[in-house]
Amino acid sequence: MEGALRLFNLRLNCEGLRQIENRMLWFLCSLCKAMETNDGCVIVIELNKDDPLFNKKKSLLHNRGFKTKEYIPLNRSECHESISDTLEKMLQIARIISLNEVELYFSEVDVSSSVKFYSVKNEVEALNSILSLVKNMLSNEKHMEMDVLRDLQNEIGFKLQEVGDKFSRQTSFDRSYSCDKEKCLVQWGENNGLKTRLEIAYVKGAGRGAIVTEDLKVGDVALEVPVSIIISEELVYKSDMYNVLEKIDGISSETMLLLWSMKEKHNCSSKFKMYFDTLPENFNTGLSFGVDAIMALDGTLLLEEIMQAKEHLRTQYDELVPQLCKNHPDIFPPTLYTWEEFLWACELWPCRAGEQCFLSYGNLSSSHLTTFYGFLPEGDNPYDVIPLDIDIDQVDCVEASPLSNWSNHMVRGTWLSKNHDMFYYGLPSPLLDYLRRARGAMLHTETCLQAKLKIEIEVLEDLQSTFSSMMENLGDTDADVVNRENLNWDVMLALEFKDRQSKIISSILNSCDAGLKLLENELSKCTMSD
């Protein structure tokens, strides 16, 4: 399965997605609005003051030459080139407003303001936020700027298509897999009001997926699911177990739904039997890793994440399920509520599952995707970060700019960076600034060049030492390559993750090494000139 974002809409009328939709509406309302003028209209793009990253985004906007509230005129006489320029200005602002924490941390604020791209997800969110505003304006038939708004809408659609074409992947299908159960599920859905322009297919190397059955334009609805066939907490409220569960303090709707599904999947007369019949007996996620796979993960971030997740789930199970089975065996039969069945249900609920269509899994690291979804995305994952355990209280951050002052620090593969020059090295600026402050220096302070270079060398040597230790803890990853084809799925997945973490650490060590050579060369020049 792929974590990429394809350009189509999924209209799912369930409560969880309504909450997401409401959040997006809040975001769009805070981002854009329009006002009519004598010459046309003005689009107002504003950074919401309630944004938890407000100060950092404000600082980045200022670095790019923008205010937190920008007025962008849209005149009725604008030509195509002018519309394109107007959209580019709007897009530069919308990209920054749409940034999440990881994207903002690695935003490389000291690089030229010509930087236009943060991530595929950010680009699509920024374009979609502007498109939603334009569509809203076009829905007002009294609006006088219909022609220029349609031109702007077309330009946005063109840019969205560009993103889709640039980041699409060739997909091959396994025609030998019939997908009969899945097709029966789709037919059942259509009989109950589902509308779809997708077809289930088995994708080589990924498993079940969906392909489009006809050309879809930007903004077209690919799948519409009526409320009546959505599995939601409403079903729990109508079940016999709700009278028991509602008396448990602090129980969440997600946990209630999980317990409901454990029993419902064995109900032969269930309305959702078609759905449960299509589910695998085993999900093959990190939660199901065996002993050999766990051992292969020694020294990785994924090992800690899996162990913490399983410990949390086991605690949740032990505190809840045995007591329910003991006190209400007629409602919670012990044979249906084993630890294995509970783990199966836990693996079920995180899963959201021509040309292949993709859903975005969100801003998730490969460790999270492996633990809860059982796959590693193809290509680079910009959210593959290694968090660093740093005591920030030891450093005075009073003089630090909002973009340098972070409470959490992290690194990722330095090949994703656009700036490997001296003082940058492909490493995140917030981390470098923090390490400089720890030595009483900042990059832009009035410090003589020689002293600054020596501090830079200390910073890189410290990082080099830290990540050399991390690499040693991973062990010899090359030794794991032997006979990899004959290994179980979980060991294969564990080793693939280990390779990725090793690649990230190796890139940081290489960047430190290259940076040290630059600094030592520059320092020798300074010494010779003295």
Automatic annotation (TrEMBL):
Pfam families: Rubis-subs-bind. GO terms for molecular function: protein-lysine N-methyltransferase activity. Keywords: Methyltransferase, S-adenosyl-L-methionine, Transferase. GO terms for biological process: methylation. Coiled coil: none annotated. The keyword Transcription does not apply. SUPFAM superfamilies: SET domain (SSF82199). Residues 48-140 form the Rubisco LSMT substrate-binding domain. This is Rubisco LSMT substrate-binding domain-containing protein.
